[in-house]
Amino acid sequence: MLEFAVLGLLAESPLHGYELRKRLNSMLGTLRAFSYGSLYPTLRRMQARGWVTADDDSGRSGRSKVVYSLTAEGKERFAELLDEAGPSAWEDETFSVHFSFFAQTDPEARLRILEGRRTRLEEKRERFRGAATRTRQRVDRYTLELQRHGLESVDREVRWLNELIETERAEKTPRTTNAPAPRAAEDEQHSPP
After folding, report:
1. How far apart, in whole angstroms, are the C-alpha atoms of residue 112 and residue 125?
2. Which pairs with CB-CB distance under 8 Å and at least 24 residues apart come from 138-145?
């Protein structure tokens, strides 16, 4: 997930580590804050694979900053990851990263990811409902509230996904207009008096 997000951000522009971390945190939210301890080893692995280059860029302050850029291989890898629309793209940990780069994702892949995510959440919703039914008498009211909250969250996301899927399908379908041609008015203008 982190490699995909880094590739996507570097596809937009070269960045130094601090700016890259800042953008990762703002893109993916504070719940998934990335430390330098996870970012820099990831950048080194990506550099070893030939996906990223690291160039020293000394600023006016004289401090050295390393600026990371995508290589041609890195761009190819990012394109491959954008096209992956299987189960790994639907999971809780990876869906938001894929969604963050939907503007660059093929419409067919976007639709597969959205539909897969919806299916995964519908399965999760059924598990929530089953667990709530089985445990209703054995748990306290706070646990029941937590279960209700989880179910409402999943319901809300399923509704959101339904709207997104409907929009994707509408944009995919070419629109035709059935407006009648203004033939009668033209005929009247050209007919002899």
Report:
1. 20
2. none
Contact 45, 71 (CB under 8 A): no
For 19-76, how does the pLDDT look when each residue is reduced to its tens digit (9 = 90+)?
998 898 888 765 565 666 788 999 999 999 999 999 987 665 567 789 999 999 999 9
Residues 137-142: what's their mean pLDDT? Answer: 81
The CATH number of 2-83 is: 1.10.10.10
Predicted TM-score (pTM) above 0.85: no
Q: CA angle, 98 as apex, 93 and 102 as ends, to 5°? A: 155
7-21, 30-44, 85-99: lowest mean pLDDT where? 30-44
Angle separating helix axes 2-12 and 36-48, nearest 10 degrees: 70
How far apart are alpha carbons 38 and 34 in whole angstroms?
Answer: 7
Nearest 5 degrees, angle CA 29-CA 33-CA 43? 115
Report the DSSP pairing between strands 52-58 and 64-70.
antiparallel
> How far is Cα 112 from Cα 54, in angstroms, rounded to an integer?
35
